[in-house]
């Protein structure tokens, strides 16, 4: 078994995209007179609950292949270097102050500036989510800008730790630890392993990768596969309370997560809580099928951000679908729109696994090569947000299976009203390759 990232190699954006070349319309691929049979089989277990955007509120979604980009990669490196230099300069100014009183003043100023920058980054994220939903920026630009916010937020988290150490070193002076912790957690709401992975791809640290993106009002969901693990970030700004920065008396954060994720709670091995009395509490849950990180706004007593890690080998799938044609059987084991999906390709004559390329695309549209099934005939990849078709081609044999995945059990339903309807389209990026498969919802 192999995930898509194993199959795909790193290439430069300025070069011609190989391996993502559009193939013929899937409706033209089935030319044999042999009939196709669809077989439903039971899934492998219950799908775990998650934070997400209600289907009626999804304004735009895409399945995007991201590559190393020299321009953006250099910009990321430059920004990270600049932030580190600013941190060192700030710490030097604090340490070089002639009196303890001046050191205290400079430290408080540095902390205040970091808090102000955090507010700006949060505002930038809202702006980018809105711009993407309004189709004013491309999927590629949106992902890169979220990655840039992630990179700067991580650098500021490091700065906060340095400032906290500097405060501890000043005799007779103290800043409440809760102030540092609150700022750290606020910055962590602007980061995720998915965004960090996008940064690694753009800067050339790792090979190219596929990302699934959904956006809604003040909301974004991003998923990818990293080292045979499906990693998903969900952020819903509308679930944050109006009293930002004001902690209210709520039930224990662990009770909030227990009510939201009963199945995950039943599978729990370890749980840790950070800042339970602050404006934002973070609850980490390690369980038998992965890991959950949830952020709770204590003024609304609701989870507004989560990060889920699901090892592919422990991922439950829904009812499977099989198609048989030209001596091949292609079986899809879907989860939910935008989630991981496993495909299995076998010979109907021998039942042996077949190693062949798979293409994926919207119904009656152009499809894109997403990987090869490998020696075991199996491939994990990401599903787009909507109905799609997958085709396996082994020499002159072609088999196609259509998938219309069910929506996942979301921990919260719709927030606000929406009259949007959903439509399917395929988005082609600037270099002409159809590697961005998109289901768009008119505003």
Mean pLDDT rating = 83
How far apart are the first and last residues' alpha carbons, in Å?
Answer: 39 Å
Which shape, going by the Cα principal axes?
Answer: elongated
Q: Would you report the number of β strands? A: 20
Strand content: 25-35%
Order of helices and strands: EHHEEHHHHHEEEHHEEEEEEEEEEEEEE
Strand order of the largest sheet: 7-8-9-10-6-5-4-3-20-19
Helix content: 25-40%
Radius of gyration: 24 Å
Count of DSSP H/I helices: 9
Q: What's the number of structural domains?
A: 2
Pfam families: DUF7094 (PF23375), DUF7096 (PF23379), Fn3_arc (PF23374)
Domain DUF7096: 2-207
Domain Fibronectin-III type-like: 322-400
Region (Disordered): 415-443
Word description of this protein:
The chain has 443 residues and is α+β, with helices and mostly antiparallel strands. It has two domains: 2-63 and 314-440, no CATH class; 68-207. Helices cover 30% and strands 29% of the residues. It has nine helices and 20 strands. The strands form three sheets. Strands 7-8-9-10-6-5-4-3-20-19 form a ten-stranded antiparallel β-sheet, sandwiched between helices. Helix 4 (100-133) packs antiparallel against helix 5 and helix 5 packs across helix 7. The longest helix has 34 residues, at 100-133. The protein is elongated, with a radius of gyration of 24 Å. 44% of the residues are buried. Residues 4-35, 244-249 and 415-443 have low confidence and may be disordered. Residues 415-443 are annotated as: Disordered. Residues 322-400 form the Fibronectin-III type-like domain. Residues 211-315 form the DUF7094 domain. InterPro entries: DUF7094 (IPR055520), DUF7096 (IPR055522), Fn3_arc (IPR056397). Residues 2-207 form the DUF7096 domain.
């Amino acid at each position: 078994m192999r995930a898509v990232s194993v199959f795909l190699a790193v290439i430069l954006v300025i070069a011609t995209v190989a391996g993502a070349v559009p193939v013929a319309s899937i409706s033209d691929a089935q030319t044999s007179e042999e009939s196709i049979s669809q077989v439903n089989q039971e899934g492998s277990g219950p799908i775990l609950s998650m934070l997400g955007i209600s289907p009626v509120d999804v304004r735009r979604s895409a399945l995007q292949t991201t590559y190393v980009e020299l321009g953006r990669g250099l910009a990321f490196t430059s920004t990270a270097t600049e932030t580190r230099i600013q941190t060192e300069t700030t710490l030097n100014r604090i340490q070089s102050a002639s009196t303890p009183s001046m050191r205290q003043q400079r430290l408080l100023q540095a902390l205040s500036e970091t808090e102000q920058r955090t507010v700006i980054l949060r505002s930038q994220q809202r702006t980018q989510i809105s711009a993407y939903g309004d189709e004013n920026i491309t999927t590629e630009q949106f992902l890169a800008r979220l990655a840039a916010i992630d990179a700067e937020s991580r650098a500021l988290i490091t700065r906060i730790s340095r400032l906290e150490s500097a405060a501890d070193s000043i005799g007779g002076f103290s800043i409440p630890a809760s102030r540092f912790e609150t700022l750290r957690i606020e910055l962590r709401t602007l980061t995720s392993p998915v965004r960090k992975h996008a940064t690694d791809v753009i800067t050339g640290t790792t090979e190219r990768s596929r990302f699934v993106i959904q956006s809604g009002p003040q909301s974004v969901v991003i998923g990818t596969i990293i080292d045979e693990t499906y990693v998903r970030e969900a952020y819903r700004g509308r679930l944050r309370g109006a009293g930002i920065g004001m902690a209210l008396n709520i039930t224990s954060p662990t009770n909030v997560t227990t009510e939201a994720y009963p199945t995950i709670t039943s599978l729990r091995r370890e749980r840790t809580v950070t800042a339970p009395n602050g404006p934002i509490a973070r609850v980490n849950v390690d369980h038998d099928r992965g890991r959950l990180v949830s952020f709770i706004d204590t003024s609304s007593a609701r989870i507004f951000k989560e990060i889920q890690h699901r090892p592919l080998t422990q991922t439950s799938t829904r009812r499977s679908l099989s198609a048989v044609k030209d001596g091949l059987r292609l079986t899809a084991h879907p989860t939910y729109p935008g989630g991981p999906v496993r495909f299995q390709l076998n010979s109907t004559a021998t039942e042996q696994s077949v190693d062949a390329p798979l293409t994926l695309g919207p119904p009656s549209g152009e499809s894109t090569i997403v990987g090869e099934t490998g020696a075991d005939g199996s491939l994990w990849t990401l599903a787009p947000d909507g109905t799609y078709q997958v085709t396996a081609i082994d020499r002159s044999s072609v088999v196609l299976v259509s998938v219309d995945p069910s929506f996942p059990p979301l921990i919260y339903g719709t927030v606000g009203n929406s009259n949007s309807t959903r439509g399917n389209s395929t988005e082609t990026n600037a270099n002409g390759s159809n590697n961005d498969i998109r289901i768009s919802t008119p505003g």
